[in-house]
Amino acid sequence: MAYITAGDLDRVLERAKGKDSLGVKLAAAIALIDGVLDDHGEEAVALSFNGGKDCTVLLHLFAAVLYARHNTPSHPPPRAVLPVVSPAPPHDEPVLSPSFRAYLEGPAAPPPPLPANVANGEQARSATHHMPTHGSAAVLYPPIRSVYFTAPNPFPTLERFVIDSATRYRLDLWRFGGGMKSALSEYLGCGGGKDVRAILLGTRQGDPNGNVAVLAPTDPSWPQVLRVHPVLDWSYAEVWQFLRELDVPWCTLYDEGFTSLGSTHNTARNPLLKTDAGYEPAWKLQDPSQERAGRGLKTT
């Protein structure tokens, strides 16, 4: 497995100078992340990473920003004004299934076992801790504080990708099972999340929880932390343009017809990508409104 390199991250910073839609959004996302790091300090900012395509974009962006901060003599660049922190705009309360509500609000639970060929992390209460390794990324930036809330019954392929990414990007990763609210509280109270005040999330508009501000505190009933959404206004096509153009490794399930990943019990390949020969890869989906067409379907 290849570690991330300076050349990989230089390409991101160079691409952000482009005047097209992707270049403009890249520059805005970089400025937002950089501003949050300036305001709160690098040690107080963590990444929520679940291996999905949007989080993978965000991980690569975050690594590029940290690389620029620690290796670019001219840093900092001209800084954008951060948007005012505000609660999410008014919207109807989403209707949650009993199982998903339990996943959000139930007691913290240990994460499911990793696939047999994936190295387990150190057990810590309701989490496993995967400590950063000394690869080439070690000289590019400090370890990235990160947390992974697993889906119920996660895909083994996705689990492998998350742990591989932790090694590739030098993540200090804490992996929790269900009971997201309780798990977040545990994370913020343990050594991994101690003093974390802001968490970067790969949420995009159109996601079930995508009706949110770029900077928004958690709801009053949740552990208090600032949620930061650098790719909130990115389109499905822009996500795949970024990943493919910059050769960012993604979970191979997307090559098999999955366009949105959840639990193995309720996520199937997108039926719109089915062909006589099998399934097209996720980036070939023509109608972005059907990104979640495979969610809620029973797998066979």
From TrEMBL:
Q: Which E.C. number(s) belong to this protein?
A: 2.7.7.2
Keyword Transport applies: no
Catalyzed reaction equations: FMN + ATP + H(+) = FAD + diphosphate
Mind telling me which Pfam families this protein's record contains?
A: PAPS_reduct
Q: Which GO terms describe its molecular function?
A: ATP binding; FMN adenylyltransferase activity
The alphabetical list of record keywords is: ATP-binding, FAD, Flavoprotein, FMN, Nucleotide-binding, Nucleotidyltransferase, Transferase
Q: Does the keyword Lyase apply?
A: no
State which pathway it belongs to. Cofactor biosynthesis; FAD biosynthesis; FAD from FMN: step 1/1
Q: Which domain of life is it from?
A: Eukaryota
Q: Give the GO terms filed under biological process for this record.
A: FAD biosynthetic process
List the InterPro entries. PAPS_reduct_dom, Rossmann-like_a/b/a_fold
Domain annotation Phosphoadenosine phosphosulphate reductase: ranges: 195-268
Database matches in PANTHER family: FAD SYNTHASE (PTHR23293:SF9), FAD SYNTHETASE-RELATED FMN ADENYLYLTRANSFERASE (PTHR23293)
Q: What is this protein called?
A: FAD synthase
Source organism per entry reads Cutaneotrichosporon spelunceum
